[in-house]
Amino acid sequence: MAGRILTEVAIVGGGLVGCSTALHFARRRVPCVLLEAERCGAHASGVNYGGIRIQGRALAELPLAERARRRWGRLDRIVGADGEFRATGHLRIARDEAEAATLERWALEAARHGVRCELLPAEVLRSRFPWLGEGFAAASYCPDDGQANPRIVTPLFARTAREEGATILEGRAVVSIERTSRGFLLRAEPELEVEARVLVNAAGAWGTAIAAMLGEHLPSEPIAPNMLVSEPLPFKIEPNIGMAGPGIYLRQVPSGSVVFGGGRGSVDLERRRCRPLFATSLSTIEEACRVVPELARASIIRTWAGIEGRTPDDLPVIGPSTVVPGLFHAFGFSGHGFMLAPAVGIVLVELVLDGHSATSLEGLSPSRSTSVPAIPATT
Amino acid sequence: MDEPADPPDTRFGRWVRLDGAEPEGVPFTIDGEPAEGRNGDTLLTAILTVRPDLGPLPPDRRVRAGFCLIGLCQDCWVRLEDGRRVRACTTPLEPGMAIRLETSDRAW
Amino acid sequence: MVKSDPLVVVVGAGPAGMAAARTLVEGGLRPLVLDKQPAPGGRMWQQPAGSRQPCGLPGHDAETAERARKEFLDLAERIDWYPGTTVVDATRGRLWAMGPGGEVDETSWDALLVAAGALDRVVPLPGWTLPGVYTLGGAQTALKALGCAVGRRVGFLGTGPLLWLAAAQHLVAGVEVAVVADTSRWTGAMRALPDLLADRARLALGLRCLRMLRGAGVPIRRGIRAAAIEGGENVTGIALATRRGPRRFACDAVAIGVGLVPQTQLLDLLDAPFDLDAESGVWLPRADRAGRTPVEKVFVAGDGARPLGAAAAALSGERAALAILEDIGRPFDRDRAARLERDLERHVRFARGLARAFPFPAGLEAGIASDTVVCRCEGVAAGAITAAVRAFGCHEVNAVKALTRCGMGRCQGRLCGLAAARIAAVTAGVALAEAGRLRAQAPIEPLPARVRRTAPDAVA
Ligand SMILES: Cc1cc2nc3c(=O)[nH]c(=O)nc-3n(C[C@H](O)[C@H](O)[C@H](O)COP(=O)(O)OP(=O)(O)OC[C@H]3O[C@@H](n4cnc5c(N)ncnc54)[C@H](O)[C@@H]3O)c2cc1C
Ligand SMILES: Cc1cc2nc3c(=O)[nH]c(=O)nc-3n(C[C@H](O)[C@H](O)[C@H](O)COP(=O)(O)OP(=O)(O)OC[C@H]3O[C@@H](n4cnc5c(N)ncnc54)[C@H](O)[C@@H]3O)c2cc1C
Ligand code: FES
Fold it and tell me: What's the fold here for domain A3-48+151-220+312-371?
């Protein structure tokens, strides 16, 4: 498809953020063209851990996360299938008293937002979750959190967006962007030019580079969370599990495999490649076996990593550019944007078309000061 | 040359030992029942010469009996009583090994 | 592990790896050789269990095998030999290996030779996941190394020289052969004759196997168009669609295979490039005639580069070792290298003949029924692949894997990857190359979660 396309909205990046944005522009009958360098869901959105949790999030993310959670619950009505989303609950485990205090603080804040969160003292942990290892100080449990299958959710959004009229072009890498009298001129390879009035930067870990093409400095560093999966095992772990401090995250998928992650792999942003690191995998296995000791009986059959952009304050950058009119950013999700993405698309469309959204993005906008560190929250 | 299919005779074991196997027996157990393999056997050899299969394996609980015999298809993983899981075609039989094929429980 | 300077690591101690190790020692190096098997020998010269000694099997020269193993073990003081050790991950300059006790160890390398051999290629057929169905190589291993037959009455199904060899070996070992059913036709073999004459000994062996099977009255069917393995809980027979109509043969075990696929997972982890061999539909690692891949200091030899047989594997292992010596700046014998390349040419020609005589039955693979299981690990049927391709308009096999779980199981798509790619390509109406190849992921074999890293002071 060599040549030039004229459209209203151009979206760079076919992750879940870009695809859900395309879907909602299409639903509002606004012509849009999404350019994806590889395949929709090829990066973070398609290879992430699949954790859908509100628990432990920074407060600035809560309004967006709550809207996203409502959307996860009716994914079948949005994209025609449930993406294997299950509200299995999310268990967050504290190793010591200090971490237990973190759980309590978060539960209090959550209550103010109407998020259900149950604090569990050490004594009840093993009776409620018999597969759990010993020696943990406390846990908290959010029954409305859950998990989904990242491999199918983005393709579902892409397909639905296409069906509803969005133009989604895969294998088209945007290599330069210029401002024109009409808005933006994007050059993509192989040979394609797209001219649009509005530009959405949903380029994930490459979002900083896209912003830089238009002279805007929005820092993020590429990270590659390191993931593992066990052979299929009889099903017994219902909730999605995370740690209060830094550490592993683990869930058992319906087919029986235990998917877990922790630590980082290596990443090469330019070559668009990343890989898990064996040493990281080994320490993650060791730690996962402390959380679920019986895992030591199983075999690990695969490891992988995914490329994600991490901002200095671990919060995504969502909203209009402070320097370029018509440019909107949504990137830098810092390891926890899969859960948010189904709401990010609709909120962005509201911002672009209506000038405002009912969902507060305070603390997430490109204009925020990033000097204040937020509560760290990874996956 | 077309013949009706005979039911297979796998009551005692799927595999047949050919001449040349050592006479020395190596005792082991399957689901608690005593069995005997031979010196030099892999676990897979020892099991399949006395049993028809290795029982079902998740995720689809298909009954397996090995396939490639060189450690590549992974169709022969079995559980030992001590909780270890081993690949039967690449694991040498050791005297006293206790194999658990029975998987009605939900143990990993 | 031990560290010598420069450190050349050889993965696999089959004919290719053993020849390479010897050549490297001659060149003044002390290579580190790893093989997941407890003894050297690889596929062809495998150590039989205990004192079991198969004798008189056609195409199996126990003495040569034993001599090769002994020669290798005689090197033991001049190499670092780690049997029972599986390499599970490799990056530039480093690799991870798992030892017999489940301990894992990291080691560095200056040059790496991957001589990992090949695995039978199989076409998914109705019933191929029943207990009692084995790969041809598996059935052969049972016979040659384990002293067992995989059943009382074995049917042989597929195509290739191994089909006939394995059947004849079973016959000689006293196992009843129910049928030899080959998808190829006599006419192809006739056309391949000029190339097959490149290795008269192997041609003669093939003809001898054929005569033995015929002489024993074993039913032989060629030009098979469709096949199914029958049975409920166990194999009960093979049903064939032959040119003369349907035929059924009772048996309690079936050995299947349609050729060999190089085991290239480690090369894949090292980012080595691959090219599609159009004739067979197999992706082969890119390498020059000496076994150099485009990845610096990474070499490939033997069946793992291109399945040419044991003799060629040894030649290519030796050739690759010379290339390693050359590339690390050691003296090496140029004439010897040229001679080896010439000798290998003959094997390439013979292999071309084999490919023509026993063409890959692409039609069988492309015409798969929707309820036939493709991925035996995850239980994914062909229909799930075609449905995903149609629903999402994708055909790249890694995308198909992500949507369907096909190739996501314990074997990492070793057995289903090629079939899944073809089914996706045929469904989408694109060329096979467009479907790509399943990418390998570490660990390339299941890693027990109880593994522990060897104490740091033991690590080089
Ligand atoms: C291993 C891992 C585990 C994670 N686990 C979780 C989790 O459990 N829960 C959770 O909520 N979040 C998780 N995350 C984070 C989550 O996956 C991401 O935040 C989210 O998917 C980001 O979506 P995205 O669309 O912004 O990015 P991506 O999915 O990365 O999409 C960006 C796309 O932009 C394309 N692109 C880039 N540059 C260009 C260009 N120049 N031209 C055209 N296209 C371009 C890329 O090819 C890519 O497809 C995890 C992330 C990783 C990597
Ligand atoms: C199924 C099959 C049956 C065959 N039957 C015959 C026959 O009957 N007659 C005949 O002439 N030829 C036969 N061949 C061909 C012949 O065996 C081969 O050509 C020859 O053995 C190839 O030698 P190689 O060294 O390349 O590989 P192999 O002999 O296969 O040796 C490869 C070695 O690498 C090891 N290895 C692989 N991966 C790893 C890893 N990650 N870590 C550590 N070690 C590893 C393996 O354990 C193996 O010992 C057969 C081949 C196959 C695959
Ligand atoms: S039978 Fe294939 S791995 Fe054991």
Answer: FAD/NAD(P)-binding domain (3.50.50)
